[in-house]
């Protein structure tokens, strides 16, 4: 995704990164412009130099965060089960549950994006489509890739709502097993090596 030159300024990027971290931790709707700007050590005036309003900021967060997620998954070799499971285990970890500010945007902000204007939803749809193209390449099947994404995001969302670590572990372990079963089913469908 190519950004216009005016969208590459260091203060804008710093503002998007800091706002994303705050929004993933405390929610986007409940974070005012002053709080979003302050998270980056900037003023609300600086915010409005880069964004017309919060909706535009949410679009920038969605695009930047999903681009970063796509970048992390793009380092996995296609159909390398070991690398894929390592990445999924990290996603389905207690550390990811406990630290939304440094984690994936999907479990924290998907519901808020659902209430956003159509323009933001279009940015989300395009960025998610680009992420899914990468995941589908790594997994080898687009429907299984979508299923894995849905399971992982849902499990993290549910785990974050639970009070005890035992309950969180149970949800995450069930998701890890389901993901492994899905990947194993792909292996069983693949022809043996050397088969024409």
TrEMBL record:
Gene Ontology terms, MF aspect: DNA binding
Residue span, HTH tetR-type domain: 9-69
DNA-binding region: 32-51
Listed name of the protein: HTH tetR-type domain-containing protein
Species of provenance: Cystobacter ferrugineus
SUPFAM superfamilies named among the record's database cross-references: Homeodomain-like, Tetracyclin repressor-like, C-terminal domain
Matches recorded under Gene3D superfamilies: Homeodomain-like (1.10.10.60), Tetracycline Repressor, domain 2 (1.10.357.10)
PROSITE patterns given in the database record: HTH_TETR_2
Keywords, sorted A to Z: DNA-binding, Transcription, Transcription regulation
Coiled coil: none
Recorded superkingdom: Bacteria
UniProt-listed InterPro entries: Homeodomain-like_sf, HTH_TetR, Tet_transcr_reg_TetR-rel_C_sf
């Amino acid at each position: 995704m190519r950004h216009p030159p005016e969208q590459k300024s260091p203060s804008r990027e710093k503002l998007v990164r800091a706002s994303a971290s705050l929004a993933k931790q405390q929610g986007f709707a409940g974070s005012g412009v002053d709080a979003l700007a302050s998270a980056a050590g900037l003023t609300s005036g600086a915010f409005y130099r880069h964004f017309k309003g919060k909706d535009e900021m949410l679009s920038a967060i969605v695009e930047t965060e999903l681009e970063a997620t796509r970048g992390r998954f793009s380092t996995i070799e296609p159909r390398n089960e070991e690398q894929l499971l390592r990445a999924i285990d990290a996603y389905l970890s207690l550390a990811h549950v406990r630290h939304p500010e440094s984690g994936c945007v999907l479990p924290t902000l998907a519901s808020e994006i659902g209430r956003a204007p159509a323009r933001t939803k279009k940015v989300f749809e395009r960025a998610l489509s680009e992420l899914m193209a990468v995941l589908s390449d790594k997994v080898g099947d687009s429907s299984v890739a979508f299923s894995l994404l849905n399971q992982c995001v849902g499990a993290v969302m549910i785990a974050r709502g639970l009070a005890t670590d035992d309950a969180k572990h149970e949800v995450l372990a069930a998701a890890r097993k389901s993901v492994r079963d899905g990947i194993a089913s792909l292996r069983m469908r693949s022809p043996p090596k050397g088969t024409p």
